[in-house]
Amino acid sequence: MKSIFITALMFCFYFCTAQQNVLWLKKHVVPFSPDPSLSVKNDFSQLKKYIGDAQIVMLGEETHGDGTAFKSKVELVKFLHREMGFDVLAWESSFFNAEAAYQIAQTDPTPLEKLQLCTYGLWGKAEQVQPLFHYINDAIKSERPLIVTGIDCQLEGSFLSHDFILPFFNYISSKKLEFGKVETKQEFVKYYYGLLFLGQTLRNKKGDEKIALLDTLFKKQQVFLSFTSELIPRLDTIKEVQAKRFSQHLKNIIAFLPAHLKMPV
User: Fold this and answer.
1) Residue 28 structural domain
2) Are residues 124 and 229 in the same domain?
3) How many degrees, rounded to 5, is the angle at CA 178 between CA 172 and CA 181?
4) pLDDT in tens, 174-230
5) What integer pLDDT is reported at residue 118 of this predicted model?
6) pLDDT tens digits for 36-85?
7) Using CA atoms, how far apart are residues 238 and 10, in angstroms rounded to an integer?
8) Per mean pLDDT, which range of 15-24, 43-52, 104-113 is the poorest?
9) In the chain, which end has fewer C-beta atoms inside a 10 angstrom radius, N or C?
10) Number of domains observed in the structure of the chain
11) How high does pLDDT run on average in the chain?
């Protein structure tokens, strides 16, 4: 499975002279433009020799508000899917949110709306990115769909509330992985939603109230961590996509927990 990653631009620094940099660029750069009125003729086929047999291609951008870069990447994604066999598009967005959005879009009567919610609004609502969502939508029922996922562990996205808790509890119940006590389940739900809406809650509180809320979440994290740490290995033994999706979401929450509980500046 070959993947395309859309993320912020990553720079590689080479310790060589300016002249060497210019020569290297002249030899390796493939010029293209999203604007058909310009003289640059797009020929993505030149990229094939540089990408070769790579399984992952990362597409960056200088800033999250660069519409021209968005348009360029839309054409690049289409090329990579059509011409080079890449079949997974991974956004710099919440893993579970993107996975849930794509899963729902496959059977939803309005799949385009769900696909637009798979990522942050800076991409999902950007005019220049809409052709890509239409492309994914058109391919979703084809023999070669462009599968959508996310690579971010942050708790951001429309599908993290209703499309996690209930399906999660129904699934672990069907696999007889129930909570030991009802109180533990209640604490888990309360803590999860506390993290999910933490940013919004903090914006409505003053300094001392923010500190008190974060302190409470910090002190209560042990019950949450204890249960998830026990459940994750059990989910990992189940060879089903749903189990892997829930397991990874829990791992992401644990990984991002220290950043979540830091006092905002």
Assistant:
1) 3-152
2) no
3) 150
4) 999 876 676 778 888 899 998 888 877 888 888 888 888 888 888 888 888 888 988
5) 95
6) 555 556 678 888 888 999 999 999 887 788 888 888 889 899 999 999 99
7) 36
8) 15-24
9) C
10) 2
11) 85
Tell me the mean pLDDT in the region 86-101.
95
Strand-pair partners of 4? 57, 89
Q: Note the pLDDT of residue 37.
A: 59
Whole-prediction pTM = 0.82
- Residue type, position 81, single letter: H
Per-residue model confidence as pLDDT tens digits over 221-254:
888 888 898 899 999 999 999 999 999 999 999 9
The DSSP-derived string for the chain is --EEEE-S-------S-HHHHHHHHHHH-----S-TTSSPPP-GGGHHHHHTT-SEEEE--SSTT-HHHHHHHHHHHHHHHHHH---EEEEEEEHHHHHHHHHHHTT-SSHHHHHHTSS-HHHHT-GGGHHHHHHHHHHTTSSS--EEEEEE-S--STTSSTTTHHHHHHHHHHTT---SSHHHHHHHHHHHHHHHTHHHHHHTS-HHHHHHHHHHHHHHHHHHHHHHHHHHHHHHTS-SHHHHHHHHHHHHHHHHHHHHTSPP-
Amino acid letter at 124?
A: G
Nearest to 177 by CA among 121, 101, 96, 231: 231
**Do 27 and 145 fall within a single domain?**
yes
112 with 171, same domain: the answer is no
Rounded to whole angstroms, the Cα distance separating 60 from 68 reads 12
Kindly provide the b/e burial profile for residues 189-218, where b requires at least 16 CB atoms within 10 angstroms of the residue's own CB: eebbebbbebeeeeeeeeeeebeebbeebe
Classify residue 158: in a domain, yes or no.
no
